[in-house]
What does this fold into?
Amino acid sequence: MPPSTDLLQGTLDVLILRTLAQGARHGWGIATRIHQLSQNVLQVGQGSLYPALQRLEYKGWITSSWGTSENNRRARFYALTAAGRKQLKTELQQWDRLSAAIGLVLSPKAEG
Amino acid sequence: MRNMLHEWMTRLRFLFRGKRPDGLEEEMREHIERLTEMYLERGMEPREARRRAMIDFGGVKNTLEQCEDLRPGQSWDKLQQDLRYTFRVLRRERGFTFVAVLILALGIGANVAVFSVVNAILLRPLPFHHAEELIWITGNFGKGSMAETNFRVEAWDAYRRHNKSLQNVSGYIPYLSLGETKLMQSGADPIPVAGVWVLQDFFSMLGVEPAMGRQFTESDAVKGAAPVVMLSDAFWRNQFHSDPRIIGKTIRLDKDTRTVVGVLPAHFDFGAVFVPGATLDYFVPVIPEDVKDWGHVLGQVGRRTPGVSVEQAEAEAKTLLPNLRDTLKLGGVTDYEPAIVGLKEHVSGTLRRPLELLWAAVGLILLIVCVNLSSLLLARASSRRKEFAMRVALGAGRGRLVRQLVTESLVLSGAGAAVGLALAYAVTMFMAHNNVGDLPLMSTVHVNGAVLAWTVVLALSVGLVLGLLPGLKIKDEDLQETLKSQGQGRSAGHVHGKLRTILVVAEVALACVLITSAGLLLRSFLQVLQVDLGFEPQRVSSIRMDYRPDFDNNNPSEQRTSKFQETVRQMQAIPGVQSVAVTDNLPFEHGRSWDLSAKGKAHKAGDDLDVMISVVTPGYLQTMGMRLRSGRDFTWDDQARGEHVIIINQAAAHREWPGQDPIGKLAQGIGDGDTRVVGVIDDVHETSAEEPASPSVFVPVSQDEPTKAEVVMRSTLPAQVLAPSALQRLRAMNPEQATVPLKPVQGLIDRATGPRKFFAVLVGIFAALGLILASLGIYGVISYAVTQETQEIGIRMTLGATPERVRTEVIVRTLKIATVGIAIGTAASLVVAQAIRSLLFGTSAGDPVPFVAMVLLLLGVALLAGYLPARRASRIDPMAAMRSN
It folds into this structure.
């Protein structure tokens, strides 16, 4: 098991939103998807995943409904709402700005 | 912003849906299931795979609780839980709940009631359109009698036209006796009514629109205009049965017939603002041309142009009015030296300090209530320590316990506030209806939005203070230890005991301040009552006899004199009446003033020549109990054609004939020619008991016109016997005599001392309340201490301590607490006494009597409060005490 990286709450939120942008998923699916996409670097603490999902739902960014999973088991699926989509867009823009800025500071060129 | 709105809407939706998210646990179990499968696929043992999955996931319960905390509405659920628990606890401890709510209701109720009064009189603007622009304009630097501070109509007219800082200047004639007349009705006795003469644009300047009909207009105020009248709402309702077609009808006021042109709105109360304690029925327009020769009769109210300050308006008036006086040759020296204040300041300015004091006093009461209850709650908190320790052991956070305590105290203070509000509502209704204290705007006192808001603020702050104090104590203690220990937790009990002792000391000190202030105010009030008024109002009553100068004075003075002589003779014949006279001016009424100067005396410009004038019949001095120092009273032989004579008071004698005997001297200014001084009386307080007597002159009714006729009678008969026979005799002489009440002269003085009495009594009530609460506090602490130490006392008694010794010790301990409180309180009282010095009369701020009385009172109450637990302590049965626990 790779060491889990502690995720800032806000970061976890945006990761979840991003994952759901590709379609509805259940909790397990979200966790494994984040794990895969990050090439096994990011391990979502299960203890924080579900509170995060609750929080996002209360904020109105995602909705949940019960359905049947790929292996025919009952599971709760989470999907982005319109507000969630908008939120994701702003968060991504912010992230781009921030990472670009951090990139500038950390790049070797900055040392000269 | 939109996002936030969206979020709140979603939260609200969840809140109202109210359900916990279902299946959360199932979802998590499923997650663990998957994790287990993953580990199985990697070839782990089933048991090991499951163990790893569980470890990876962390606690399901924990996560569930985290999710629960996020749920909107969960705090609402917790609150419901706390509330349910609170109600259970409070129901269980009914006695405690009852006492706490009662004390809180008294404290909060008193505060709310006083706030209603403060709000109506001090805080709220006057009930007029843009009331802050209204100003009150007086002459003679704003000091002296009405005759000195009022204006002549010419002066008003010129000032109105020439000033540049006011939108308008209007006013009214504050001599209410002008409007005291009778309403003639067909088929019924005439009834007395009260009215005011106002300038025609007075109501429109105030921004008061008639509820029915129209305002007065300029054409109503020209000489010879058809007589019109406006009615007050109450008068229209009661006397004309809310006649919707009253406009255009005529009413008869004494001998005048007037057309009703308007009815004023119900919310407009002229008396409340301008004449505290009076109820006015009707209003008539002043016809300036008719009152030109009446002298200084106009009270002026102006409206500032926006942007002009009161000071600027006054600065302008200070140059403008003396100029106008000179141009118009109005005479009078200081009468046109104006002082201008905001109308609000004029109406309630003098009440500012007393009301602030009252507010502070009632605030102290609330403080004492809080201290008292904190002490009660602390005692309760220590007996509840086990309960709290148990709850902590079962997993309640400390924050949750504090929250529980705050919920409890908020429920208590909320209940107290609700009961207090009801009390305050009743009290303010009573005060407004009865015009208690004859204070201005009193009739407008009621519980309104501001008062409700204040109640909520009080309830919340009291609740928070009461809850947080024991709440913080809880945090300090080691609850686990408490749970383990079997006994009472002696050390913690002592900590509580100490804190409670400090609270009680504070309570005693606060009560000291209240009692001393009340004592000083009460003593001032008694001093005012002790003032030698120069006459004896007891057993003197007056009845208003129909008499109008404009009709009755067309008769020659002989006829007038014989009419009064006959009246006096008739009334004197009533069995039980000792003496009777007629006057046109009773003490403590708004008198009129003329000039008086010793004949031949040179006067400097600026000399004050004003004297109060009363036109009286022979026997007036004797009836009123005024004391003749030298000379003689008038007799019926002082005839119109004989030498004109006057009686003066000492103040007038000192001013005009300093160092001489004025008897036989000639004076000028009264009537047309010279008048001879035939008598000097001791000074009579004409306007107020608290101010020095002003120079006064008495003129016989045969030699000058009275403005009205008050028949004064000295009699031992009770009013209900005297009134009908007096009225009957007046009516026998004049069938049209109005049905007027018999008024005790003492009533006039009571009205003048009303505000002082009002404040003294209220502060006295609060002091009594403070005293009771403080004694309860002392009793509570000592009694609790005795209970705590039952075992110890038992041991000591077994070892030979006598009951007397135990008793003495408890009492000494009580007195120690009281003494410390009194010492601190005395120091604070000295400071407070200095602050309220301006409200005292004939009493110095350091007057020892209230201080000594306060110390004795508090020590006495402390003794009593300590004696009861002391007796209980001395009766402890040592054996029983040792066995218990």
Summary: The longest helix of chain A spans residues 82-106. The radius of gyration of chain A is 16 Å. The CA atoms of residues 97 and 103 of chain A lie 10 Å apart. DSSP finds four helices and three strands in chain A.
